[in-house]
Amino acid sequence: MAHIKPEGSFVALITPMNADGSIDFEGFRTLLQWHEENGTRAVLIMGSTGEVSMLSPDERRQIITETAKMNSGKMLFYYGTTGNNTQSTIEYTQYAKAEGADGAIIAAPAYICADNNAIRDFAVDVLDSTDLAMGFYNNPPRVSTDLHWTDILQLADHPNMVVLKESTTRVGQVAQVCAAEPDMAIMCCCSPNLGLVVPTMALGGHGTANMTGNIIPQEMAVISKPWETGDDAFNCRAAWLENLDVLHYAYSAINPVAVKTLMRAVGLPARRPLEHLVELLLTAQLGRVGGGILLRVAQKCVCTKPDQLFSSGSVPSASRIVQRRAPAHVVACR
User: What does the pLDDT read at residue 257?
Assistant: First the structure.
């Protein structure tokens, strides 16, 4: 069957967790409602931003089951289903399909460092395994494997392949894929260091598969809107330049340490990143030279008061915020 192709802002969501390390499903509900209200068109649950490698198989299945129940139909719900081999990836993908997922994103399994032919065969096996919209995340910084545009176009011929997330630094690769006009959405990572966003959108890209939308979803929605008019292009450029400081901060430490640190600071439901020492350094950095970033993000939310951010050395907990406000208004943007 034909599948819906995502476009616009496709946010790789964090995994909210409680203080004891368990999954915070009410935090998930709050974040998903917030994204619905602020222009996000699709979410990726349990991508690298969601610390999927730190989750047990049972937790992964539980997250799929419980969050799929929260889908109101206003956004596409995709799930990261890459396992440590082909069979486990197929099993996660089939499970997501059975629980009502809109789609799945796969990448080359970590640490294997297989050649392109092997990873292309792996992707085809997963694409063949179930009738579900799927995408491939070409992410050599994380997994070493780097598919060439010819490999990507071969995958694009599969009817279940609906979206590419490109995370190389090669604008030329994006151009070759766009020039071929495959029947899939072409998206890229939002890292300002890769420098792909504006070129991808200018070449006809369909949006960004981003993680900075965890902090600034409205702005990423503007940046990620496909260019149909000159205003779309100018709005993208203006929003990109205005938010460069936030984008650079989001990528200033290994994903998702920086973004979770900033989310916690403004009261969004995000438990401490796993690299606690790095978080402390980033918080200190914000206090010394990056306070403007934090204040600007906080001003977009009603979840906390900017003048209280550094007063106690801690951040407001999600549970206190949820008790104080209805979920739909926890982090409603002004």
Answer: 85
Whole-number Cα distances in Å, 296 to 30, 44, 154, 262: 21, 26, 44, 11
Residues 6+ apart with CB under 8 A from 99: 64, 65, 68
pLDDT at 282: 57
Pairing of strands 161-166, 185-188: parallel
pLDDT of 171 reads 96
Contact between 101 and 126 under an 8 Å Cβ cutoff? The reply is no
Question: Are the C-beta atoms of residues 185 and 156 closer than 8 Å to each other?
Answer: no
- Domain-ending residue, one of 242, 271, 299: 242
Which stretches in the chain have pLDDT values below 50?
277, 288-289, 302-334
Do 296 and 189 share a domain, yes or no?
Answer: no
Is 251 inside any structural domain? no
Cβ distance 188 to 211 under 8 Å?
Answer: no
Q: Using alpha carbons only, how large is the chain's radius of gyration in Å? A: 19
Q: Check residue 292 and give its pLDDT.
A: 60
CA distances from 329 to 30, 128, 178, 299, 326 (A): 9, 42, 40, 15, 6
Total domain count, the chain: 2
Q: Cα–Cα distance between 282 and 269 in angstroms, integer?
A: 18
H-helix or E-strand spanning residue 246: helix 244-250
In terms of residue numbers, what domain contains 281?
257-329
Instruction: Please check whether residues 142 and 191 belong to one and the same domain.
Output: yes
Q: Which two tokens stand for residue 91?
A: 């099993």
Choose one of 181, 211, 242: the last residue of a domain.
242
How far apart CA 89 and CA 238 sit, in angstroms, is 40
Task: Give residue 279's pLDDT.
Answer: 53
Q: Quick one: DSSP state of residue 211?
A: S
Give the Cα separation of 198 and 156 in Å (integer): 23
- At 280 the pLDDT is 55
